Amino acid sequence: MPMDDPFAPPPPDRPPDESRPGAPSAVPPERTGPAAIAAAIPPVREEGEAEAWTLRRIVHAKAFIPTVIVVGLVLIVLLSSRLAGRPPVVDAITPTAGKPGEVMIITGRWFGRERGEVRIAGISPTSSDYSEWSDTRISVTIPEEAGSGLVHVVTSNGASRGLLFINGDEIPVVASGPGKAGEPYVTAIEPLAAKVSDTITISGMNFGLEKGASEVYFAWTGGAGTATAVSSDLGQLAPARDYNLDYQSWSDREIVLRVPDGAASGNVLVTTDKGRSNSVYFETLAGAGLKFFSRPRTTTVQYGVSVHDVAASGGNTLFLWLPRVIQTPEQRKIQLVRQAPEPVVGDHNNVALFRLENLVRGDREEVVFSFMYERYQVETQVTATKVPLTYAATADLAARFTAADALVPSTAPEIVKAASTAAGAEKNPYLKARRIYEWMLNQMSRGPSGRATNAVAVLKAKRGDAFAYSTLFCALLRAAKVPARMVAGALVGDTGQRTLPHYWDEFYIETVGWIPVDPLLGDEDLDVGLPADPEADRRKFYFGNLDNRHLTFSKGIDEVSRMSPDGQAVRRADFPWLASVHEEAVGALTSWTTTFDGVEVTGVY
User: Fold this and answer.
1) pLDDT in tens, 88-143
2) Most C-beta atoms within 10 A of its C-beta, which of 103, 179, 256, 465?
3) Which CATH number does the domain housing residue 255 bear?
4) Which domain holds residue 55?
5) Pair (191, 324) in one structural domain
6) Is 366 helix (H, G, I), strand (E, B) or coil?
7) What is the pLDDT at residue 147?
8) Same domain for 536 and 414?
9) 224 and 146 part of one domain
């Protein structure tokens, strides 16, 4: 027989005796709480019935209270386990460069009260090496066999991200002079420790009177925790780049440059057409944030253009500028697989110059590039309170990338007003960028925009494609005095999967570097297997992070020189790279059509 509900009203055949003095009236079922429960207790006519009903009520009430307590305890346990289950986070290690036998102090959070494990370049110290372990601090002696590499803290809740440690015994000693006559030679770096964005001076000899194709390489850490601090393999290092405005001056005995985006502590060397210099150790100090490179993906792509529908009345030349797959901190190990025809200039500001001569009606000419490259997912962690509020160390860079240009009308009154509305009273450039990102995504929706190249029109339409999102976001950031640039390329999938021409952005924060943002992917899902982390919050992920399916052709506008003062220069709005000129016709070429043939993925490794 089912047990009665202790809180139910009495059966209808025994209504409350309202004539009886003090008898409670019936309580509507929607009333709750102690007063309602007390009011719902029915009167009794006979003593036996009253005792039985009261007993049932007491039994149920006593059963109800422990149930509530048990449920509460379960929730507390679950919540506690969730809070206690956070993986450790390492904020700093001291020293960043040291020798075996020295004590390393690791600070951070969520290390736990019980000792876990520290791994230094893959080596685990013995139990006797630990002298301190708390939830926020660890002291451990560096093992003799530990080399240069990443330091991780491992607990039952997972492993931390790694911070780079350099074994002092592996730091190269400056040689006494060039190995061969004419080779570059570094005698000093001043200062020997600095942050990303800081200016340093490299002294020595045989650097060359002009920079030309020479480069300065810094250590870089990326991939699956691979430390490149003491590597001499140029493919594992990070060069300073002209398109980032890293180089300030270059002479035969002195190079002045900024510590580039993606630099880590380790070897610095100079390369010229005469060879490479000796390596000198340089320490990259911590700034307002960190960058992490992971999930390397090697891809081979082919792309190019076709020239057809030609009309000519005599001799002519058509010059075509095509982008190369450029080297960036997240896009590395670039290898040329094929190019046809042979370019006139193989690499000028990350583009190649091709020349087609004496085109006639009916001609169809193709220009093809094929490259293999390694792409990394990039993630940034920025501590907003440490972000410099001005661009004192990078004034030239800030001036360049806050100015209006042909694609970014950042001084238009409508853009300036919208940027002010979006940023509000915020002074911190990183937080301003985030506020503008959120404001813009709340305003915009993806849709046809006629490939509008005017950010003002995009702002009014409140819809657009990847180009529209990119040019508007870049314009808003520049109007808010945050250095920013458009990035052009493609979204690439697996072999046989479609690719999409694509545009996104980067903004600059001193002591951190260029921070990626993909406004369209933060707002919409494009079907090319993105993002790399399917569990990520897209809107959150694509502010400060970028997956490994992006292929970069250009960062900002590639400035190329006109070939003839009488030439007909053309910039193509439908080409997924940003250049001051895409093609130039000279002579009696009256009309033609150039079509971008798209990006084809020919291999993924």
Assistant:
1) 999 889 888 888 999 999 999 999 999 999 999 889 999 999 999 999 999 999 99
2) 465
3) 2.60.40.10
4) 1-84
5) no
6) strand
7) 86
8) yes
9) no
Do both 316 and 406 map to the same domain? no
The count of domains in the chain is 5
Tokens of 37: 């429960």
- At position 397, the amino acid (one-letter code) is L
Cα 76 to Cα 265: distance, rounded to the nearest angstrom: 45
Q: What is the CATH number of the domain that holds 492?
A: 3.10.620.30
Q: Are residues 263 and 312 located together in one domain of the fold?
A: no
Sheet strands (E) in 324-364:
331-340, 345-348, 351-357
DSSP 484-508: EEEEEEEE--STTS--EEEEEEEEE
In whole angstroms, give the CA distance from residue 326 to residue 581: 18
H, E, C per residue of 426-488: CCCHHHHHHHHHHHHHHHCEECCCCCCCCHHHHHHHCEECHHHHHHHHHHHHHHCCCCEEEEE
Q: How far apart are CA 359 and CA 593, in angstroms?
A: 12
Which H or E element spans position 367? strand 365-382
Please state, in angstroms and rounded to a whole number, the distance separating the CA atoms of residues 210 and 205: 13
Element of type H or E holding 217: strand 215-219
Bridge partners for 550 per DSSP? 491
Distance CA 489, CA 475 (A): 19
Confidence of residue 322 (pLDDT cuts 50, 70, 90): very high
Among residues 84, 104, 137, the one where a domain terminates is 84
Position 384 in a domain: no
- End of a domain among 269, 285, 301? 285
- Nearest-angstrom CA–CA distance, 212 and 504: 29
151 and 183, same domain (yes or no): no
Same domain, 53 and 202: no
Q: Are 169 and 99 in contact (CB under 8 A)?
A: yes
Name which of 161-170, 191-200, 415-424 the model is least confident about.
Answer: 161-170
Q: Rounded to an integer, what distance in angstroms lies between the CA atom of residue 497 and that of residue 528?
A: 7
Whether 357 and 317 have beta carbons less than 8 Å apart is answered as yes
Binned at pLDDT 50, 70 and 90, residue 377 comes out as very high
Spatial distance between the Cα atoms of 576 and 529, rounded to a whole number of angstroms: 20
Residue 382 located in a structural domain: no
Q: Residue 437 in contact with residue 505, Cβ under 8 Å?
A: no
What confidence score (pLDDT) does residue 431 get? Answer: 98
Residues in the chain: 605
Count how many Cα atoms sit within 13 Å of the Cα of residue 166 in the half-sphere of its side chain: 22
Is the separation of the CB atoms in 291 and 329 below 8 Å? yes
| Residue 579 contacts residue 321 (beta carbons within 8 Å) | yes
206 with 272: CB under 8 angstroms? Answer: yes
* Domain identity same for 412 and 445: yes
User: Which of 43-57, 188-202, 464-478, 554-568 is predicted least confidently?
Assistant: 43-57
pLDDT digits (tens, 9 = 90+) for 444-456: 887 765 555 689 9
Per-residue DSSP letter, 22: T
